[in-house]
Write a structure and sequence with these properties.
The chain is α/β, with parallel strands linked by helices and 432 residues long. 19% of the residues lie in helices and 30% in strands. It has 2 domains: 105 residues, Purple acid phosphatase-like, N-terminal (Immunoglobulin-like); 310 residues, Purple Acid Phosphatase, chain A, domain 2 (4-Layer Sandwich). The chain has a 6-stranded mixed β-sheet. Strand 17 and strand 18 form a beta hairpin. Helix 3 runs parallel beside helix 6. The chain is globular. The N terminus is likely disordered.
């Protein structure tokens, strides 16, 4: 009898832990709302409770269910919050209340007209290949270890921006919904990622390996599946602009506006000879320029899957579609839009590109890649706008610190290796 009791008490904690597949993950963060994502191992009723610190008697309780059709993922929205406030929260599986996750989140501060904008830090990276031998191509593993995710946690960013190729759909994945959702689940449930999900707010764009096969374009037959999967696994504030589908979105964090572009959903095939060649398309460009003009933010950060400013017309750089690249740059100059910085991934190398426009304004493109995938040295490919000393051909991630008073705001761009060691650092001052 004693032996039976011992065995039951030993396996029960494992059964409890098995209720959650991955997460919780902190998502979109606003003044009055915060989203939290979680994935359960099966259909479950999830109890979400939150309350401001020291106000436990005033709890808000939300009960929602996960379903297998969307891989048992669930986005929970904490509403009617107070700005600049820290909240305790818990997530409980109703079927087994012994499993209970407790964490904290905070809302953005209401600083406008009251004080200088708060300093903050965001992390960035792309190309996160998580090995799975039975579906990977034979030979040397493409993923190169996952300690980099703990290094990102140790750097304490307020949010992280995933710049595409966040997952790598394999040949066995992109033909079916079950394959696509398996790939997302395999990525999201990696043990080394759980601390990052739980301690940092996350936003994302996609590139070809999240969207479909290598270099996939608008013709990809299953893009409706990968589009839905992106929405089920990320918690961006919105998906698509002006009634379009796609993952385009926008959010504000303190005094920085972030614009998230879709470089796949509307992309014309590389080899098509008729029709208009495009990556993001005219409608998305018009929205972007309108939004940049309307923005009063100190810095305007534009995230896009592939390099925009590099003049090297190679691989998937925007320079291979020169008409559209030139149009975007010319509109930014024509409208005298200042303090624009593009963030890009894709290239399995990191570099900072700087373009000085005829009117004296400066645009930057911080390409940050790879997180865990194989890296390449492309220092000789012809990017004559590269800032000296910023080319990195090892696994790395980026940090951008936003600092200074409102009138003298500046960015500190950093590149760090997988252990968190600083590789380079550049400062960008606000142009007046």
């Amino acid at each position: 009898m004693r032996k039976i009791i011992f065995l039951i008490s030993w396996i029960t904690p494992l059964a409890i832990l098995a209720q959650i597949k991955s997460g919780p993950m902190l998502g979109h963060k606003e003044l009055k709302e915060v989203s939290i994502w979680v994935q359960t191992v099966s259909d479950q009723e999830v109890v979400f409770e939150y309350f401001a610190e020291n106000e436990e008697t005033n709890k808000t309780k939300i009960v929602k269910s996960t379903i297998a059709d969307n891989a048992n993922t669930l986005t929970l929205i904490a509403k009617n919050l107070e700005p600049g406030t820290t909240y305790n929260y818990s997530i409980t599986i109703a079927e087994n209340e012994a499993w209970n996750y407790k964490g904290k989140f905070s809302t953005q501060e209401l600083w406008n007209y009251r004080m200088d904008p708060p300093a903050f830090t965001f992390a960035l990276g792309s190309c996160a290949y998580i090995n799975e031998a039975k579906y990977d191509r034979p030979g040397e593993p493409y993923g190169r270890g996952y300690e980099i995710f703990e290094s990102i946690v140790a750097s304490s960013p307020d949010l992280m921006l995933w710049l595409g190729d966040n997952i790598y759909l394999r040949e066995a994945d992109w033909g079916t919904k079950s394959g696509v959702y398996h790939r997302y689940t395999h990525f999201r449930s990696l043990p080394e990622l759980q601390n990052l999900w739980q301690n940092t707010h996350h936003y994302a764009i996609w590139d070809d390996h999240d969207y479909g096969p290598n270099d996939a374009d608008r013709s990809f037959i299953n893009k409706s599946i990968t589009y839905q999967a992106f929405q089920d696994f990320w918690t961006n504030p919105s998906y698509g602009v002006h009634g379009q589908e796609g993952i385009s979105s926008q959010f504000t964090y303190n005094d920085v506006d972030f614009f998230l572009l879709d470089n796949r959903y509307f992309r014309s095939p590389n080899n098509r000879k008729s029709g208009k060649r495009q990556i993001v398309g005219d409608e998305q460009i018009e929205w972007l320029i309108d939004a940049l003009i309307s923005s009063s933010a100190n810095f305007k950060v534009v995230a896009i899957g592939g390099q925009l400013l590099s003049p090297a017309a190679v691989y998937e750089n925007h320079a291979t579609f020169p008409e559209e690249r030139n149009k975007i740059i010319q509109l930014i100059q024509q409208e005298n839009i200042k303090n624009v910085i593009f963030l890009s991934g894709d290239r399995h190398k990191t570099e900072l590109t700087k373009m000085e426009l005829d009117n004296g304004n400066v645009i930057y493109d911080y390409t940050c890649s790879p997180l865990t995938s194989k890296a390449y040295d492309t220092s000789d490919e012809g990017n004559n706008l590269r800032v000296e000393g910023t080319h990195v051909s090892t696994q790395n991630f980026g940090l951008i610190h936003v600092k200074g008073s409102f009138k003298e705001r500046f960015l500190v761009l950093k590149c760090l290796d997988k252990t968190g060691k600083l590789l380079w650092e550049k400062e960008i001052k606000k142009q007046l």
